[in-house]
Amino acid sequence: xxxxxxxxxxxxxxxxxxxxxxxxxxxxxxxxxxxxxxxxxxxxxxxxxxxxxxxxxxxxxxxxxxxxxxxxxxxxxxxxxxxxxxxxxxxxxxxxxxxxxxxxxxxxxxxxxxxxxxxxxxxxxxxxxxxxxxxxxxxxxxxxxxxxxxxxxxxxxxxxxxxxxxxxxxxxxxxxxxxxxxxxxxxxxxxxxxxxxxxxxxxxxxxxxxxxxxxxxxxxxxxxxxxxxxxxxxxxxxxxxxxxxxxxxxxxxxxxxxxxxxxxxxxxxxxxxxxxxxxxxxxxxxxxxxxxxxxxxxxxxxxxxxxxxxxxxxxxxxxxxxxxxxxxxxxxxxxxxxxxxxxxx
Length: 345
Description:
- By secondary structure, the chain is α+β, with helices and mostly antiparallel strands.
- 22% of the residues lie in helices and 27% in strands.
- The chain has helices at 23-37, 127-131, 145-148, 158-165, 258-266, 288-297, 310-323, 334-343; strands at residues 18-19, 40-41, 52-57, 61-67, 72-75, 81-82, 87-88, 94-98, 107-116, 136-140, 152-153, 169-175, 185-187, 192-196, 201-204, 216-221, 224-237, 240-247.
């Protein structure tokens, strides 16, 4: 990947949380944001989206976070800092909500404790050197990852980037962005632009906004989904506006930062892994609604015919798989999601 050189911050470090907005305002805004951003609404109670949630901070606002274990959540450190009172929030002020959609949720837990990058200095002028430490690992009081599932960590390797270039892998981002704060939305049009901070940071072109801080940069390849980055800042460079994420490789044992590796381990998680919700959980194990929406975009499933219909969905999936030369299973899966995302371009 290209090294982009030092970044010039545009004070877009997203250090302030998104204010909690009224539900009606969020619902009205959602109709426009789909057209303006290209992001689509997904069902937050379907894996992998169920593993992504809101980090609610002291009733004043939120960021995005994501489960990487039964009790472990990754988010941006700056989400835990109270800019008004100029102090770090205590764990008792934080709450993680998974599967949140339009004021409805069933999977949530208080935060029991957290660890953060010691080198991060809060404030809009802290610079990229500080931003490279902008991570936090939350340990939840309850193991909601058993029911929401969690996503494994991976690396933005040269092989992965090559697969993205050949259309064999996709880069996604999901979160609760400003203006759409009560709806989980996903961007399928992400690109990795390069590295900064000697490989510890990834410059990306996802359409992000406030509220997306702490959200995962995801790689979908061969039916496997991995977090390759943690979104932390917006930047202005000589090449134009780009967004910045911490590389998930910071948490990799042996080659990552020991501080980050140890924090993840203490929270009961480790590198790699990933697991869908267990059987009988309220969260579904596959992104059915997302797949149905993409099939509708392709004209293979008519949304005007009413609600979910397993028979119609299976027939639409089989038709798509047959036309694309794929094994015909009729079943929704992450592998199918990847092919549908490619087909919509």
